[in-house]
Every structure is written in structure tokens, then in C-alpha cells.
Amino acid sequence: MNSALQLLPEDARLERSSARRRNAPESIFIPKIVCPPRDGKATWKFGVFGGMHGDEEAGILASHELADWALTLPEELQDFELHFYPVCNPTGRAVGTRHSMGGYDLNREFWVGSSQPEVAYLEGEIRREVYDGLISLHTDDESAGIYGFASGALLSQQILEPALEAADKIIPRNPSPYIDGFAAERGIITEGYFGVLSAPPEQRPHALEIVFETPDYVRMELQVQATVAAVKSILSEYRRLQAYAPNL
Length: 248
Hints:
This is Succinylglutamate desuccinylase/aspartoacylase family protein. The protein is of the alpha/beta class. The protein has helices spanning about 55-70, 90-95, 115-130, 155-170, 220-245; strands spanning about 15, 25-30, 35, 45-50, 80-85, 135-140, 145-150, 180, 180-185, 190, 210-215.
């Protein structure tokens, strides 16, 4: 696929009959950017998700920068097909709020039978695409530095740690033993909130799931640079580990 932006097909547009009652737009548009592998055949497929909270701009900007990089077909991505969803909460972004215009924190609505159209669309995409990895990009307005969530201690050490190390060259990591209410070690959290964006519970083997967080107090340019560095590291480390342990 040569086009940078893949618009949702007409039947995938999120028409909201309830949106009119909430004084929200009549339809919701979530863009998707598909970046094909260098050799035309992917070994791994990753989804990168930004803007789940409408007031977190760094992940949105980083998603676009990463997509621009991926569309140049760099050697580092010869095995990857990358799908970017840079603005997962378009109504929240439009008004500059964490929640959607309907008043929901969309990152607590996944795989719980949510009626929110953004969540229904993204769940359908995630289930249909069967991603090997999902990377969520966020900003924390209370954090003292970068940090991340990962599903599983081994993955945390082998993939998230190098990603934080790469980003740490731009923004220091959060050294606190407790971050966002969870126990943390060197900026790594292996627990998480219920209902966050993730692979379908029934997917086997389960996808790699990484959440990368930048601190809101740092200027936007550095947040974007740190996020881009972290995502590139995650992809590199995933390839390296798969060479030794497929389906880790």
C-alpha cells in the first residue's frame, strides 16, 4: 500500500445516534495509517495508538512522525507492518479534554461490552488485525519522568527496559517506587488498569502490550522525541528477542 492515509470505509464510520443527544458531532472519524513492510511481506504486525485521551498531544504527534519514518521503508522495518491510529479520541481532542465528548474515559472501556462507538470500532480493528504487538502512547500530568506499563515481567525487562533507556537520553525516567498508584521498578510497571486498550482476552498467543508515558511538564518537542525513540527501540528489541524465542 503506497498511500500514507487509509480512511475508514463508509460502513466503518462511527455514526452515533446517541451523539446528537449529547450535542456531539453526528459522526466520528478515527484515522488509520498503514505502513507496509519493506519487502512486501510482514513477519509481525504492530498497532500503535495515540490520542486515547484527547488532551495528550505528544502521542498523536509522535504517531505521525513514526508513520512518516515507516513509510520511507527503512531497513529496520523490513519485517514489520505497522498500523497507526494517531487520534483514538477525536471528540476529546477537539475540545482538549481527557474524556470523550460523551464524558467517558475511553481507556477504561475495552473488552467490557462498552457502548462507546470509538471503543467498538477499535475493538473490531484489533480483533480483525490480530496484532503481534500493541503500543499505546500517553502523557501523565503528574509524573516526574518517563515510565511504562508492560504485560509480563520478562517482557518488561527485555523490551520495555531498553525502550526506557533509549528515551532516558531525552527525558529522565521516573525513579519513584510507586507511579500512578502501582508499584514500579526503574519506571516499569507490570500491573495496570482494568479496561485499557489491549489485545482481545481470547487471543493466543497473547500480543505484546506496552504503554509508554511521557511527563506533561516537559516541552512537547522533547516528549515527541522520547516517544519516537522508545517505539523504535521496542520494535528493534522485539525482533531481536523473536530471533531467539518466537512467540515469547
